[in-house]
Amino acid sequence: MTTEYTDIEKTPVGKKMAGPVEWLDDRLGLAGAGKKLMPVRKVFPEHWSFMLGEIALWSFIVLLATGVYLTFWFQPSMAETVYNGPYKPLNGLEMSQAYSSTLDISFGVRGGLLMRQVHHWAAMLFVAAMVVHMLRVFFTGAYRKPREVNWLIGLGLLTLGLVEGFAGYSLPDDLLSGTGLRFVDGLIRSIPLVGSYLEFFIFGGEFPGNEIIPRLYMAHILLIPALLLGLIGAHMLLLVYQKHTQWPGPGRTEKNVVGYPLLPVYAAKAGGFFFVVFGFTALMGAMIQINPIWAYGPYNPSEVTAGSQPDWYMGFVEGAVRVMPNWELTFLNYTWSLNVFIPGVLLMGVLFTALGAWPFVESWITGDKREHHLLERPRNAPVRTAFGVAGMTMYAVFWIGGGNDIIATKFHLSLNAITWFVRIGWIVLPVIAFIVTKRICIGLQRADANRILHGYETGIIERTPDGSYSERHAPLPVANQFVLTSHDRLPVLEAPAEEDANGVAAPGSRGARLRAKARSFYYDGAVDKPTTHDVEHAAEHLGDHDGHPVPLGEDFQGVSETGIPRSHL
Fold first, then answer.
1. Tens-of-pLDDT digits for all 569 residues of the chain?
2. Half-sphere exposure of residue 291, counting CA atoms within 13 Å on the CB side?
3. What are the two backbone dihedrals, phi and then psi, of residue 127, each rounded to the nearest 5 degrees?
4. What 3 state SS string does 86-117 have?
C-alpha cells in the first residue's frame, strides 16, 4: 500500500496562507531564523519519567493564568471592615478586607470559587511535580557533570516554590492561614540573637501587625514569580545547551540523543500534555474542595484552629517541631528556643545544604570528572539510592508527626504514642530503610548479572535421560544485554600512600584516607557487570550445553524475557 503526500503549500489552506506567510517572512526573516535557531532542531528523548518536569512547568502556567484572574478582585489589606456579603453566616462579623474580598471571590464572583480551587490545586501539583522530578534526577544520577549548576537551579526553584506556596496560602487571612503565619513567626523568633529583629523587619512590628498581607501579596504576585520565571528560563536554556539526558539503550551513547525534534513532534506532544495537566487541575478544582476559608472564619490572634495542618509540602517541618523535646535555655540574657530552632530552621537549612552539596560530594568520593549524558539505573548506585530512600523515609516519619493529632483522633490512637514513635522512628527507620534498600539494589545487580550469564528462565521443565530435571534457559536479546551492561565498571580501590619514598608523611594524607574510606563505603557490596569474556563464554554455554538445550524454534512454548507467554503459530 502506497500513501501519497501533498506538499502543504499545494493544499487549499496552504495556498491561502502563502501570501501572509511570505509577507511576514520578507519583513521578519522567520524562516531563516528558524533554521538557525538550535532549539527548533533540538532533539528530545522519549520516556514517561521526563514528563514529570513538564507537569511542573504546565502547572506553573496554570498558576499564572488563574492568579491573574484572582488579582482583579483580591484586596491585600488588613484594614478592618464589617462583612455584609453573600455568605450570610458571617454577616456582621469584623474581618480584614483580605478575608472579605476572598469571600466575595468565592461566593460573589462568577467562577471565582472554581478559580480559587484550581489555583490552589495547581500550586499543590506544582510543588509535587518538582519534588518527584528532583527525585528522578537524583536516583538516576542526572545531576552529574555537566549538570551540577542545573541541579542547583532546580533546588532554587523548589525553595522558591515552597515560599511562594506559603505566601499564597497565607493571603486570605483566615484562621487557618493566620495560624500558619503564627507558626512561621515562631520560627523566625527562634533564630538566636537576630530573631526578634527579623520579626520586626518582616512583619513591620510585632506579630501580626498590619503590613504582612500586603508584603506577602507583592512577593506572591511579583517578586517570587519573576524569580521563578528567570530560573525556569535558565533551567530550560541549560537543558537545551547541554542536551537532554536519556536512558541507555541500543544506539544511545554519551555523544548523541535519540528522540524527536522540537518541531513539530515534541512541540505537539508537549502542547497536548499541557491541556491534559490543565484539564486535570480544572477537574480537581471543580470536584474536590480545598481550603474552605468560610469554615474557619477570620483570623484572630487569640484563637487557634483545631486540627490545623499546613499544605502537604510543609508538613515535615510541622511534624519535626511537634515532636521536638522542650529544649530551651537562657544564655547571655537571651532565651535560646532550641525546641523550635533545631527542628524548624536548622532542619531545613541542613536539608537544602545537603541536597545542594551532594553532586560535588559524590564527585569527590568517586573521583569521576567525566561528562554523563546517559542515565544510571538506581540499582547500579546502591548507596546513592539507599540515601535517597532513607531521606524519603525520614520525611514520611516527620509527616506523620505533622498530623499526629488527626491520626490520633481518626484511628483512636494515643497522641503520646505517636509522638514517641516519630521521635524514635526518624532516627531508626531511615537506617533500616538504608540497609534494606542497599541490599535490594545489590540483589537486583546480581540478578542482572545472572540473567546475562545464564539467560532467563523460560518456564519449561525438561527431564534428562538420567531422570534429573532442569529448567530451560534462553539467552537475553542483545538489546536487553546492552541495557543491563551500559553502566561503568566498578573502580579499583587502592589504599592511599601515607608516606613517600623517604618515609615522610605524604601531603594531604588525612584527606586521602578520608576519601578512601568514603569510596570504600560507597562501593561496598556493589556487584560489577560481567566482562566481555564472561558474556561470550555464557553465549557458548547457552548455545550448546549438555542438559541445557535452548532452541527457540517454532515449537518453543515458554515465556519471553519479560515473563509474558509467547504466541506461536
1. 445 556 666 777 667 777 777 777 776 666 666 555 556 677 889 889 999 999 999 999 999 999 999 999 999 999 999 999 999 999 999 999 999 999 999 999 999 999 999 999 999 999 999 999 999 999 999 999 999 999 999 999 999 999 999 999 999 999 999 999 999 999 999 998 888 899 999 998 888 888 999 999 999 999 999 999 999 999 998 988 888 899 998 888 888 888 888 877 888 888 899 999 999 999 999 999 999 999 999 998 888 877 888 889 989 999 999 999 988 888 888 788 889 999 989 999 999 999 999 999 999 999 989 999 999 999 999 999 999 999 999 999 999 999 999 999 999 999 999 999 999 999 999 999 999 999 999 999 999 998 888 888 777 777 878 888 877 777 888 888 888 888 888 887 777 766 666 666 666 677 888 888 999 999 999 998 888 887 777 777 766 554 444 455 555 555 666 666 655 43
2. 30
3. -70, -40
4. CCHHHCCCEEEHHHHHHHHHHHCCCCHHHHHH
Of 59, 566, 525, give the one whose Cα is nearest residue 277. Answer: 59
Cell 484594614 belongs to which residue?
79
Neighbour-count burial of 77, counting CB atoms closer than 10 A to its CB (0-12 exposed, 13-18 middle, 19+ buried): middle
Give the separation between CA 47 and CA 279, rounded to whole angstroms. 22
Give dist(CA 488, CA 25) in Å, integer: 49
**Alpha carbon of residue 363 to chain centroid:** 21
Q: Where are the beta strands (DSSP E) in 328-463?
A: 329-331, 334-336, 456-463
Give 535's contacts (C-beta < 8 A, 6+ positions apart): 452, 453, 481, 485
DSSP-derived 3-state class of residue 350:
helix
DSSP state at residue 43: E
On whether the CB atoms of residues 187 and 340 are closer than 8 A, the answer is yes
565: which strand partners? 559
Is 286 within 8 Å of 114 (Cβ atoms)? yes
Q: What's the CA gap between 280 and 292, in Å, rounded?
A: 20
CA distance 419 to 427: 13
Q: Is the separation of the CB atoms in 391 and 431 below 8 Å?
A: no
Cα 169 to chain centroid, rounded = 21
Is the backbone of residue 328 left (phi > 0), alpha (psi -120 to 50) or beta? beta
Q: Name the burial class of residue 269, with classes exposed (0-12), middle (13-18) and buried (19+) by CB atoms within 10 angstroms of its CB.
A: middle
pTM of the model: 0.87
The helix or strand, by DSSP H or E, that contains position 284, with its residue range, turns out to be helix 267-287
Q: H-type helices in 108-219, by residue range?
A: 112-140, 148-170, 175-189, 195-203, 212-218
What single-letter DSSP state applies at residue 44?
E
Report CA 227 to chain centroid distance, whole Å.
19
User: What's the distance, CA 301 to chain centroid?
Assistant: 36
β-pairing verdict for 94-96 and 80-82: antiparallel
Domains annotated for the chain, with CATH where assigned, are 1-37 (no CATH), 38-298+318-376 (1.20.810.10), 439-500+528-568 (no CATH)
